[in-house]
Design a protein that fits this description.
The chain has 929 residues and is mainly β. Among the domains are: 67 residues, no CATH class; 114 residues, no CATH class. Helices cover 4% and strands 45% of the residues. Strand 12 and strand 13 form a beta hairpin. It starts with a strand and ends with a strand.
């Protein structure tokens, strides 16, 4: 589930643009295509819908209608400009001049008649160009650490070549120095490419390096949106339309560590990301009689997106670093492997989803019949959707170049202090990884085909002048997905076989039972209790529209080799021997074994699809003239919300892979993620809205929501924090997106100057002072929750997270923000070094809230009878109040000493500035004719 702006909840979004559906449920980072603002005629956002016509959207749908041409020629031109010269200083920016951030949005619309009263056209185009200095703090090793010298840092570095096989009795490296002869070639090579820290970043409480490098670069964004629409009225009873929209884009997000790679500076895909979205639709309406209306449309959307890092030109892993098993023969397997070092910023290409290439198509056909009889308005319809995925993006665990995880267990002592970031870096210097692997896409593109069907019938019955009923029923059916050339894949844990649909004796659906579809009733009641009071009640069920898109990553379409140490104190392998090669299997039999070190995704044999219950009760009352109060209870229950559950997680603690659920029977050590209709999430809210309309266009409004959202997994793409069935109950907590309080105050005020107003009505005064309008939106809402974690080395339980022990109540601790300050009590949580779970739960604490005021000043100038000019001056965050991210909250490698000090608490430093917004002005001009 997620939340929308007014507090209602949803589990998926569909965007319909005049007939075509634009939704990317497998791309959470992609926003559906929406036309430029001046091209939109209507936008209808449907949440908690009780109309049976709305479906296949899991509770939320946005219907966008593009303007049409008329007999007169109309159009507009616009330019919006944002410049860092008009931006305030970022809360955490300590440099000189403010970094560049320039955004321009410009374009126009035009519409008119091709043949009067018969044939019309409308077109629009908008270009968005952004050039922004992106920056981020990174944590890098010092010169001494790069040479293997750990003196002066609060850490003990043990030699994994000493002691017992289980990691006990290890001896410290003499002088806390790793000899140069023991430093791995590939590690030294990567460190030779790594830039030096340029900032003093040291946690005074723990003597641990944090955020000691400030990286910056130029982020580039270019996008065009264009629409072409034709309307045709061949006869009085018939209207037709055809539309084509396209949106090319190009993004460049530079890696943050120069030649050594690193995460993208602006938080996206590192490197270059071109894209093109195309959408087309045709449709029409026909009036059979005054009582019967038929309408329908057919839509098509094609999405092509890709991203390529700057290092794809060479197989750096196999050729330069000499690590076997990393790169491959395909160009998209080029570049640096991923080196994930606990506590330090990752090196190489950390983004396992990069590079990617998507070529996805969506087809939609909708038909409706409306029948009006007396007080009844009946409507019947059907909908067919066909989603096709064509992807290159092997991202199951380590990415197409391979990757290595250095968690610190190799240079730590089993039974000693929990590993910290220095242990992780010691592991990296030695080239000994606790986890490693590679994702190879055996089928390119990874094709998935997903049809869906829907039928509905509803009636809007005007019982009398006070009572209106809207009731209906939907039927929806989601067949099991297939590949483009055969059925899909499913791993069956009862027989340890991967079933290949349509091959050998395996049926095309691999035996998955999705049922015969589901029925979703809807009921809405509106009752006018008096001339000033209206009561509305509603209840509806939406079928969970979650798709089978994760089949894209199923074995053997994607072969995800995943190797981990027998325990968290032992290595999975080293950089010299590299990643073992996994040979693609022969699938002709339709039933193959799953290799021991390969992960996959799968589905239960009986897929009992879930549903979403939405209900509300609303009272709307006119308190006085032009003042309306509305109060409501809104609730949502997601029944059997799908979650991605690791069915090969450890069912015990302390023994690593030996405790994995499928290890005793089959010896499997890879993660096996099952898309499972799982459990119930819920959302409850009190919502209030007060609006006052004044003279002219002036109005004032207030909206407040008090809510609570509880989930087991926050959305359909989330996994569980604890995958061990014995620990499942611990997953139930407030959702990551939960914001208990949300206050919005908004207003529009027409200044009382000029013609027809109270003041300055003269010709000159009116020309200077008339037509001005002030707008403002004030927002104040709670922060989101977060979990205080701890190193999971001693827990040694695959697929299960570790949380810290809460040892002191934090209710009265003064929350502070800034360098060297702590947002929560650093002594309230202790790390875990024993073989057990921590006592704190998921999302125990809540981060800082947000207070923001946006304002704008508009004025319309009537240049001529046909031409009008509009000037806008907009300011975001008027008070320049920073909006902070949640603090880092991992208690790693620390012990409580007699003074009560705890070390290595990431929350004991400044809160990151990724969301630290500052005051920004935007200027705009629009010409309308």
């Amino acid at each position: 589930m997620g939340t929308n702006v007014n507090g209602a909840s949803y589990s998926n979004n569909n965007t319909r643009i005049d007939g075509a559906t634009v939704s990317y449920p497998w791309l959470p980072h992609i926003v559906a295509y929406v036309p430029p603002q001046d091209a939109i005629e209507t936008v209808n956002v449907v949440t908690n819908s009780f109309d049976a016509e709305q479906g296949m959207a899991g509770g939320a749908a946005m219907n966008v209608t593009i303007k049409s041409g008329t007999n007169q020629l109309h159009g507009s031109l616009h330019e919006f400009h944002t410049n860092s010269a008009m931006r305030a200083r970022n809360y955490f920016y300590y440099g000189g001049n403010l970094p560049k951030n320039i955004l321009n949005q410009f374009g126009g619309t035009i519409g008119g008649a091709i043949k009067k009263n018969k044939l019309f056209f409308f077109a629009d185009w908008e270009r968005t160009v952004r050039r922004q200095n992106a920056s981020a703090f990174r944590t890098l090793p010092t010169t001494a650490l790069r040479g293997g010298d750990f003196n002066g840092f609060s850490s003990n570095i043990y030699d994994p070549a000493t002691g017992a096989a289980n990691g006990t009795e290890r001896q410290l490296f003499p002088g806390l120095r790793i000899p140069a002869s023991r430093i791995d070639f590939a590690s030294a090579k990567m460190l030779g490419l790594l830039i030096q820290p340029n900032y003093v970043g040291l946690n005074p409480a723990s003597n641990q390096i944090q955020n000691n490098h400030f990286a910056s670069g130029t982020y580039e964004f270019n996008r065009d949106n264009a629409d072409f629409k034709v309307n045709y009225n061949p006869i009085e009873k018939m209207s037709l339309f055809a539309r084509y929209s396209f949106s090319p884009s190009l993004i460049f997000d530079p890696p943050s560590l120069g030649a050594a790679g690193g995460d993208a500076l602006n938080g996206g895909q590192p490197g270059r990301a071109p894209g093109l979205i195309q959408s087309a639709a045709i449709g029409g309406t026909y009036t059979v009689s005054p009582r019967i209306l038929i309408d329908g449309n057919i839509g098509f959307t094609r999405l092509r997106l890709s991203a390529e890092n700057v290092d794809l030109d060479k197989n750096y892993g196999s050729d330069d670093l000499r690590i076997p098993g990393t790169n491959g023969g395909d160009r998209l397997q080029g570049g640096f492997p991923r080196f994930n070092i606990s506590g330090f910023s990752a090196l190489g290409n950390p983004n396992v989803s990069n590079p990617f290439l998507f070529r996805d198509n969506q087809y939609v056909a909708v038909g409706n019949v409306g029948w009006f009889r007396g007080a009844h308005s009946f409507r019947f319809g059907a909908e067919y959707a066909y989603y096709t995925i064509n992807h290159f993006q092997p991202q199951a665990a380590f990415g197409p170049r391979g990757g290595f995880n250095f968690t610190g267990g190799l240079t730590a002592l089993n039974g000693g202090a929990a590993p910290n970031l220095y242990n992780g870096f010691g592991d990296f210097l030695l080239g000994q990884a606790n986890g490693m692997g590679k994702d190879v896409q055996n089928i390119n593109p990874a094709a998935v085909r997903m049809p869906s069907y829907g039928l509905y019938a509803r009636d809007q019955w005007q019982v009398n002048r006070k009572l209106t009923l809207n009731y209906g029923m939907r039927y929806e059916y989601y067949p099991f997905a297939t590949r483009d050339h055969r059925g899909g894949e499913r791993y069956d844990p009862s027989i340890n076989r991967v079933l290949i649909g349509g091959l050998g004796a395996t049926p095309r659906d691999t035996g998955v039972d999705v049922g015969w579809g589901q029925i979703a009733p809807r009921l809405g009641i509106a009752y006018r209790a008096s001339e000033k009071t209206v009561v509305r009640l509603g209840y509806g069920i939406s079928i969970d529209p979650n798709s089978f898109r994760v089949m894209r990553d199923a074995y053997p379409a994607t072969i995800s080799s995943q190797f981990s140490g027998t325990t968290s104190f032992l290595a999975a392998g080293n950089l010299r021997t590299g990643i073992p090669v996994v040979v693609p299997p022969d699938v002709s039999s339709g039933s193959i074994l799953l290799p021991a070190a390969v992960g996959t995704v799968t589905f239960p044999r009986v897929f009992n699809r879930g549903y979403i219950q939405s209900f509300n009760a609303t009272i709307q009352r006119e308190l006085m003239k032009n003042m309306t109060l509305q109060v409501a209870y809104v609730g949502t229950r997601a029944i059997r919300q799908t979650a991605q559950i690791n069915i090969n997680a450890s069912t015990g603690i302390g023994r690593g892979n030996a405790d994995r659920a499928l290890f005793p029977a089959y010896g499997l050590i890879g993660n096996i993620t099952q898309l499972t209709p799982f459990n119930t999430s819920n959302y409850n809210a009190f919502q209030m809205q007060l609006t006052k309309r004044m003279s002219g266009a002036s109005q004032l409004g207030l909206a407040y929501t008090r809510s609570k959202a509880i989930s087991w997994a926050d959305n359909n793409d989330s996994g569980l924090t604890w995958n061990n069935p014995a620990e499942w109950r611990r997953n139930r907590a407030v959702a990551n997106f939960d914001r208990p309080n949300n206050l919005q105050i908004f207003g529009i005020y027409e200044l009382p100057f000029g013609k027809g107003q109270q003041y300055a009505t003269g010709k000159l005064a009116s020309a200077l002072l008339g037509g001005w309008q002030l707008n403002g939106i004030f927002s104040a809402f709670s922060g989101t929750p977060f979990t205080v974690g701890s190193a999971a080395t001693s827990l040694n339980s695959q697929g299960n997270a570790q949380t810290a022990d809460q040892v002191v109540a934090t209710v009265n601790f003064p929350k502070q923000i800034g360098r060297g300050s702590s947002y929560f009590d650093p002594l309230a949580f202790a790390p875990i070094t024993a073989v057990r779970y921590g006592n704190s739960g998921r999302n125990l604490l809540r981060g800082p809230g947000v207070i923001n005021l946006d304002g704008s000043l508009f004025r319309n100038f009537n240049v001529t009878e046909r031409f009008r000019l509009q000037f806008r001056a907009e300011v975001f965050n008027v008070s320049n109040t920073a909006a902070f991210n949640n603090p880092g909250a991992t208690v790693s490698g620390a012990t409580r000493n007699p003074a009560g000090q705890i070390t290595a608490l990431n929350g004991y430093t400044e809160i990151t500035s990724a969301q630290a917004t500052e005051r920004q002005f935007r200027l705009a001009l629009k010409i309308l004719f």
